[in-house]
């Protein structure tokens, strides 16, 4: 099984809310799936997790940073990609404070534009009480630790 490394971002606004994107799949192997997840994406060849986090932060939110700090959480699990391939996902999470609520999505790929339906700044209580699917499933615990 192929290993897919990715950097994920816990972007926190001044109200201590975390940014999540709503993903809605309709024309791929995940058709019918709707969930919320953090910004982030795959680590490219020759790139470190930290470099991928900085790049993904810029591409998906327009936030420019030279540093994302240390990794605050790691997860390893099997997942199905939209193309249908099952991979062993190795994710590292980075916490980034952001002084605003507005993000810039000009850097989104065509694929991101087709599957990301919107975004929302979630409070910890909202995350605890929601019945919607949120990834990572233990995001409340990760956020509570920091």
From TrEMBL:
The keyword Transmembrane does not apply. Pfam families: NUDIX. Residues 1-145 form the Nudix hydrolase domain. GO terms for molecular function: hydrolase activity. The keyword Metal-binding does not apply. Keywords: Hydrolase, Magnesium. Transmembrane segments: none annotated. Its cofactor is Mg(2+). Belongs to the Nudix hydrolase family. This is Nudix hydrolase. It comes from Providencia burhodogranariea DSM 19968.
């Amino acid at each position: 099984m192929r290993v897919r490394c990715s950097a994920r971002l816990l972007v926190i606004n001044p109200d201590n809310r975390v940014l999540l994107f709503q993903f809605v799949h309709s024309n791929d192997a995940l058709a019918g799936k709707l969930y919320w997840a953090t910004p982030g994406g795959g680590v490219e060849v020759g790139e470190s997790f930290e470099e991928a986090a900085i790049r993904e932060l810029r591409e998906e939110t327009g936030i420019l940073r030279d540093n994302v700090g240390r990794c605050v959480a790691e997860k390893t699990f099997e997942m199905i990609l939209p193309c249908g391939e099952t991979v062993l996902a190795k994710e590292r999470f980075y916490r980034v404070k952001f002084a605003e609520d507005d993000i810039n999505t000009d850097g989104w790929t065509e694929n991101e534009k087709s599957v990301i339906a919107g975004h929302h700044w979630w409070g910890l209580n909202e995350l605890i009480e929601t019945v919607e699917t949120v990834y990572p499933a233990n995001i409340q615990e990760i956020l509570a630790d920091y």
